[in-house]
């Protein structure tokens, strides 16, 4: 207990110290408008970073040794505020479960280029380590980006030069588009999405607007959860509706593609609280990423978080959610029912691909309206 507190305190002091140092650093470099040329890193700062990493290691490994050399540097008379704030988790608690990844992530040289490790960051985020600890290094950007970015969210192609391809197996958008049109990178192919009615499961956007209009409900703002390359937001933009898209890369440049289409990508996993305030959006759509693979508890939190951000009268759209037929009846149907929303649309159909047939899976497409008051 005492040791943990001591370590917490040490970590806090190290953080405060490095922050003061960086402030000092900032104030001393502000006068000169600078290109980010790597500056020599003072030894004591390196030392502090080292201590910080070591402390994170101690904390995360639950090191019990009472007489660590570092523990004795804590001062006896501590302001109560410091004690209070040292109780706050210095790093998101799930980060504790992955000390090796956190350690690797925090191994960098301050004030110079960051390691090329966006995949490491995503690996941590996907494991619930979110928000990630911040760093003071310069994230790499493509060396020759084009400035002629499209305003149209359905351009014939996206500029390859605006992506760092090092971490991806494909090295161009056309490679990704050719690989699998369902990945969402073949934009001419994406144009027809959300616009046609092929089965009961489809809800074409013009019909969505009709439904909202008939209910006197305006659609202005939305969140698309697990939205891939952002095609839903792209289509809604053409209707003057602002939709932000949560999307993970998972080995393909989804976030980059969303941004290059002039849309807002939110790099957040499904298990994270949406970074949106309560009751402010008109529409939440859950696409293909939201399905029976998500643990039921996580899905329950996801649905309640969607409820949190929706305004009264707003819509939750489960777009082709799939699960086993029996689970839809016994588990997911009742789970969705807990929200107490009005069922505007509730359509199910058998999932006819080989996996669907093997597992007795069904699709559900549901448009649900949040009651105005509880
Ligand atoms: C979107 O806004 C533009 C500019 O105000 C307007 O010309 C256009 O008709 C609007 N589109 C729709 C679908 O409402
Ligand atoms: C699967 O096949 C059945 C029977 O032909 C059909 O009614 C259903 O709509 C199909 N499911 C989908 C998702 O197309």
TrEMBL record:
The keyword Membrane applies. The chain crosses the membrane at residues 7-26. It holds the Pfam family Methyltransf_11. Keywords: Membrane, Transmembrane, Transmembrane helix. Residues 223-317 form the Methyltransferase type domain. One of its GO terms (molecular function) is S-adenosylmethionine-dependent methyltransferase activity. SUPFAM superfamilies: S-adenosyl-L-methionine-dependent methyltransferases. This is Methyltransferase type 11 domain-containing protein.
